[in-house]
Amino acid sequence: MERRQTRKIAVGELFMGGGERILIQSMTNAPAHDRENTLSQIKALERAGCDVVRFTVPDMETVRNIAYYKENSSVALVADIHFDHRLAVESVAAGIDKVRINPGNIGSADKVKKVALACLERKVPIRIGVNSGSVEKRLLEKYQGPTAEALAQSGIEQAQILEGFGFSDIVISVKSSSVATMIKANRLLAQKTDYPLHLGVTEAGGKEMGTVKSAVGIGSLLIDGIGDTVRVSLTDDVTQEVDAAKKILLACGLQEGGIDLVSCPTCGRTKIDLISIVKQMENKLAELKLSPKKTVKAAVMGCAVNGPGEAREADVGIAGGDGYALLFKKGQIIEKIPEDKIVEVLTSEIVKLCE
Q1: pTM for this structure?
Q2: Given this model, what pLDDT does residue 191 score?
Q3: Cα 30 to Cα 27: distance, rounded to the nearest angstrom
Q4: I want to staple 51 with a disulfide (CB 3.0 to 4.6 A). Which of 23, 133, 143, 145 is the partner?
Q5: 8 A C-beta contact, residue 326 and residue 333
């Protein structure tokens, strides 16, 4: 796919936009004043493969924790700020890597200007966050609700406010709980601006439905070449957001590294317990937490006749027979293995490829 060309901005030691790899984000949900629990979540997200971690900054007590988080983690950190411009200014002074604001609720133009100038001085980017609940009343009336057009226009107008103060290191996110609205809004932004875009479906739900909604919304845009950073919002353990984001990027061919386990849906020709084998493989691979530098594609196919051919692009895989399976690599049959050894042998082959 051809990636949309955007301006390139620095977020801590990382780069976003300009053709750089797509960054994975998440957000802590520990109480703002619980410093140790928040740091624990930041480090857990870091271990899970998160690039950028956001946390809420409701008061100065939380601002004072920023230096502590910076000293004890290596991910890029984002201060999520509403209403009080002073919190944004002080977060920048404390060393935050990025600020997330909605200029519309920060207050007067002078207050927004103070945030923009503080960020400009320290070269700290600003993410403008717009969702269905934060669209200006004027735009809601004009577009008759929080439509895609209203979301996109709000993001553009707020970016123009910052640009008016000479600030241009801007990322925009327009989110909705409606997948279709979120997709359309981001497509409009992609047509009208060159800002890096942060993709996500807000209020997506729990792990199962939230992942589905996010995969449809985020994945559709990524396949179009739109999007520079993603967050999968789930009502679940925060590390589950990172796992889901990695899988979405892998499915879109945008994740370097990881294990792509493909399997057939089974049919009347299947003579091994393929469903159980796939579940065992998923659990086993999750336990091993393998992190190959390149994507390893492994196939679990039910038919010994068509399996190797249908999964010829796989690095390694099995194709089931009657109580046995054929082990194949790059479509070439290597050996015959009994059904009760399939998980063990295939896992061993995958581990070798990850070394």
Answers
A1: 0.91
A2: 96
A3: 9
A4: 23
A5: yes
